[in-house]
Amino acid sequence: MAIVIGVRFKSAGKVYYFDPAQLEVQLGDRVIVETANGTEMGEVVMAAKEVAEESITQPLKRAVRLATAQDDQRAQENRAFEEKALGICEQKIAQLGLDMKLVGCEYAFDRTKIIFYFTSGGRVDFRELVKILAQVFRIRIELRQIGVRDEAKMLGGLGSCGNEVCCRRFLGDFQPVTIRMAREQGLSLNPTKISGLCGRLMCCLKYEQDTYEAVRKKMPKVGKTVITPDGEGTVVEINVITETVRVNTGEVREYPLDQVTRKHADAKQAHGSEPDAQADDVQQDDAQADDVQEE
Question: Which of 101, 125, 224, 294 is most buried by a 10 A CB count?
Answer without folding.
Answer: 294
